[in-house]
Amino acid sequence: MSAVPTPSSDAIDPSDALVADVFARNCDSRAALETVGGKWSILALLALVEGDYRFNALRRRVEGVSEKMLAQTLHALERDGLVQREVVTVIPARVEYSLTTLGAEIAERLRGLTELLEGSIDHITAARAAYDARRG
Prior knowledge:
Order of helices and strands: EEHHEHHEEHH
Largest sheet: 3 strands, antiparallel
Pfam family, one: HxlR
Number of domains: 2
CATH topology of the largest domain: Arc Repressor Mutant, subunit A
Low-confidence stretches: 1-9
InterPro entries: HTH_HxlR, WH-like_DNA-bd_sf, WH_DNA-bd_sf
Shape: globular
Protein name: Transcriptional regulator, HxlR family
Distance between the termini: 46 Å
Radius of gyration: 20 Å
GO molecular function, one term: DNA binding
Strand content: 5-15%
CATH architecture of the largest domain: Orthogonal Bundle
Oligomer: single chain
Organism: Actinoalloteichus fjordicus
């Protein structure tokens, strides 16, 4: 992780040694933001906040996502500790996806942003129309 060093003394507390900085090029927090900020990641997290999903049910919920893209998205979210993949040992075996505690917290914040956007769609549509009219 690339981070900003904190002021030090002779005895450095490991929890104070590094500070995440999303503006730093190589900081892990920036990479996590890139994962969370992707269109398919946002939609997958918002769907999973509704409850656990099997892969195909999640693909149907997130309209327009390809099987390949959803698989890549879920792998990235799982790698960052936001999504949990559980193989349910029944016949036939199935896989279920759910949010981790951190994933649920992030999804709730995304839900607030989504509600703001949905509630502002008239304003956004009008602004787009005005912009397009100015641009010819």
